[in-house]
Write a structure and sequence with these properties.
Blueprint (H helix, E strand, L loop, with lengths): L1 H14 L3 H16 L4 E4 L4 E4 L5 E3 L2 E4 L12 E8 L6 E8 L2 E4 L7 E3 L9 E3 L8 E9 L2 E11 L2 E5 L10 H10 L3 E2 L2 H9 L8 E2 L4 E6 L14 E7 L8 E6 L4 E5 L8 H10 L3 E2 L2 H11 L7 E2 L5 E5 L12 E6 L9 E7 L2
Parallel strand pairs: 2-11, 14-17, 20-23
Antiparallel strand pairs: 1-4, 3-9, 5-6, 5-10, 6-7, 8-9, 10-11, 12-17, 13-17, 14-15, 15-16, 18-23, 19-23, 20-21, 21-22
Length: 354
């Protein structure tokens, strides 16, 4: 009986509100949500389009709800920009500002600045855009106990292309796939980039890595070897695979370039080594796969002559389909990986502008 009475008394004491605690909790809620305007961060545009080598402004402004002032004046405003990774597992620091202090990070150093066109402008300017800059950016503004964020997507004009090395189909783990794209003047493509390419007509039956670690492929013409002829067109998803052990092809993305892509006029056909030297002698380098795709897609480059590229493949770009030169479609035609020492072809060169 005493035990029961003791428990009842504990329950009653626990149920009674403590006036001091209630007051503290009430004041805390009023301080954040009711005393003074709420901080809001807004991006005027959700998507911004640019290209490699260009400059861009990612819009972001902050203000207090129900007022026209940028800040309360009692706390310093802290502005932080980060980039969201394609798998959304982490954020990469880009730029931070507080008062007169400014700091940029990684390969953004020297390329990012605040626009500061007004007191409430937190927009970020990125100069000399790189392929790696593509993605979603978060603008975060912090004032005292208040903060808010907005997200802006930076899209690049470019082209997605499937890639497999000389070893053949399905020979790249994820890390090798990333490097393969970099070696060909490109980066591993995102799902959004592959989806846009599919909507533009890209049809490819081999599955390839994407930047989020998934393996997918785009089909515009359903057929038996590619999921069955009765399936609907779309981007087929193999799911997420072991980045170290699983092996597939890769989808790469490249944008325009700061240079000249051209077919070298030479009196004779060349072996691979002779092709490399011929470009060097002409003040250029043998072109990369990403460069022939960018020239074809973005500049309309058209040439029916097959030529060596840096990875040892032989290809040629056709923008105007015609007899004996890709009669059915505009494409970068793939001849293969011929014997470098004995097979003779022309060569495509690339000369970078200073």
């Amino acid at each position: 009986m005493k035990s029961l009475l003791f428990l009842v008394l504990i329950s009653v004491c626990w149920a009674e509100p403590h006036p001091d605690n209630s007051s503290l909790e009430h004041e805390r809620i009023i301080h954040i949500q009711e005393n003074g305007p709420r901080l809001l961060v807004v991006a005027e545009q959700a998507k911004i389009f640019s290209h490699r080598g260009g400059n861009v402004t990612l819009p972001c402004k902050f203000y207090h709800e129900h007022t026209s002032t940028a800040g309360s004046g009692t706390h310093k405003i802290r502005i932080k920009w980060t980039k969201l990774t394609s798998d959304y597992l982490k954020e990469v620091d880009v730029f931070v500002a507080m008062g007169h202090h400014r700091k940029s990070y990684g390969n953004y150093q020297g390329r990012v600045f605040l626009r500061e066109s007004s007191e409430n402008d937190a927009s970020l300017i990125i100069t000399n855009i790189m392929l790696e800059d593509y993605g979603r950016y978060k603008c975060e503004v912090i004032e005292g106990l208040e903060d808010d964020t907005a997200v802006v997507a930076l899209n690049l004009e470019g082209v997605v292309f499937p890639y497999s090395p000389r070893l053949g189909r399905y020979n790249l783990n994820f890390h090798e796939a990333q490097q393969a794209c970099l070696d060909q003047d490109s980066v591993i493509a995102s799902f959004d980039q592959l989806y846009d390419a599919w909507r533009s007509g890209l049809d490819w039956c081999n599955a390839g890595w994407l930047s989020d670690g998934s393996v997918q492929y785009p089909i515009t013409k359903p057929r038996e070897p590619c999921g069955g002829k009765n399936t609907v067109p779309g981007v087929r998803n193999y799911g997420f695979w072991d980045k170290d052990k699983s092996r597939y092809d890769v989808f790469c993305f490249t944008s325009n370039f700061n240079g000249r892509f051209y077919y070298l006029i030479h009196p004779t056909k060349l072996t691979y080594d002779e092709a490399v030297q011929a470009c060097l002698k002409d003040g250029a380098q043998i072109a990369k796969v990403g460069q022939i795709f960018a020239a074809w897609k973005l500049l309309g480059y058209d040439r029916c002559d097959a030529g060596w590229l840096a990875d040892g493949s032989v290809r040629y770009p056709i923008s105007r389909p015609r007899k004996r030169c890709s009669p059915n479609e505009a494409a970068v035609r793939f001849v293969g990986f011929p014997d470098k020492k004995h097979k003779l072809y022309g060569v495509y060169c690339f000369r970078a502008y200073n």
